[in-house]
Inverse folding.
């Protein structure tokens, strides 16, 4: 079976790494395309995968995004048409599902935030299957023409699947000179270039300022873009660490005492790994975050002074591990019955 996978953001290589491994172990041929955005290409390489780079991010403006989407759709069609794929898979790449639909290829898309209206209007309508966590109420997805059997839901967090075989690497702490006696806070800025995060949230810079001058803390910032990296570096806060390139963020999260993030994936990685985590997200909460908050696994932060800063004891029993084969089976259910290899 020939499988096409498309990555358009930094989280996508993480989600699909175990799925690609399973596909290849089961004798399938997998080809990957990727958009040049944030740390996507670095993370593809870091996880032992290779990809054909097609397109880049369209920037902040709706016009720039539309132009780049049109250009990328044309390039993806030209690339995929002669390859005769049996199925196409993605995490939220509406460009993959739209291209696959145009070429008559069955496709599955997965995501875990339901309020990205335009992205899902395009991507879900074109997809054969839409695979999401069961924490998202199905009625919220009906507006995207995603209802059963097109809609398939899985238990838990996607991070509990792709982190199922993960063990942290303690050497990442030594590489950045992180002192074991100081509280390690890992921070992720808001996704300012995303259409669904339209208003700048002052809480993240306030939190950075609060932590950056404390001598009992290491504030490790994992930026999304070079612009964010430059902004944080220019603050010259003594307790802040900003890496120059993509890092082993999952090990940092697993070894952290606290995680503070304005985006979803890092919040949920922390929850899956049993690490205390706060969200500074300024947009509308999705069903997954609502469920995590109800369960006490994610805490909304409205004032940096409310952060509980202390060393924690690691307990593996706080982790939840799930079999990625379950997610892969749901994605492959887009194949016509009887064609699964």
């Amino acid at each position: 079976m020939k499988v096409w996978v498309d990555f358009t953001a930094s989280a996508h290589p993480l989600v699909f790494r175990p799925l690609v491994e399973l596909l290849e172990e089961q004798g399938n041929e997998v080809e990957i395309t990727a958009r040049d955005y944030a740390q996507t290409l670095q993370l593809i390489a870091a996880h032992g995968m290779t990809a054909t780079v097609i397109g880049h991010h369209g920037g902040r403006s709706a016009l720039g995004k539309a132009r780049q989407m049109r250009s990328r759709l044309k390039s993806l069609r030209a690339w995929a048409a002669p390859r005769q794929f049996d199925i196409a898979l993605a995490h939220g790449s509406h460009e993959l599902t739209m291209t696959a639909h145009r070429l008559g290829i069955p496709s599955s898309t997965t995501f875990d935030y339901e309020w990205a209206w335009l992205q899902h209007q395009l991507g879900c309508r074109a997809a054969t299957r839409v695979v999401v966590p069961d924490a998202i109420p199905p009625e919220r997805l009906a507006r995207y023409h995603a209802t059963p059997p097109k809609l398939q839901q899985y238990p838990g967090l996607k991070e509990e699947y792709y982190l199922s075989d993960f063990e942290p690497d303690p050497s990442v702490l030594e590489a950045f000179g992180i002192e074991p006696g100081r509280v390690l806070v890992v921070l992720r800025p808001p996704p300012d270039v995303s259409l669904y995060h339209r208003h700048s949230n002052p809480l993240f810079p306030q939190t950075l300022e609060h932590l950056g001058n404390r001598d009992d803390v290491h504030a490790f910032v994992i930026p999304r873009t070079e612009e964010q990296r430059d902004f944080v570096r220019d603050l010259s806060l003594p307790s802040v660490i900003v890496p120059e390139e993509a890092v082993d963020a999952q090990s940092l999260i697993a070894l952290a005492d606290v995680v503070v993030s304005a985006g979803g994936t890092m919040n949920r990685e922390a929850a899956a790994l049993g690490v205390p985590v706060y969200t500074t997200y300024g947009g509308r909460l999705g069903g997954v975050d609502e469920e995590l908050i109800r369960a006490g696994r994610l805490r909304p932060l409205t004032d940096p002074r409310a952060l509980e800063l202390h060393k924690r004891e690691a307990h593996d029993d706080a982790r939840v591990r799930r079999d990625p084969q379950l997610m892969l089976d749901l994605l492959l259910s887009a194949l016509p019955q009887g064609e699964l290899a």
The first helix runs from residue 11 to 25. The chain is about 35% helix and 15% strand. Confidence is low (pLDDT under 50) at residues 193-198. The first strand starts at residue 2 and ends at 7.
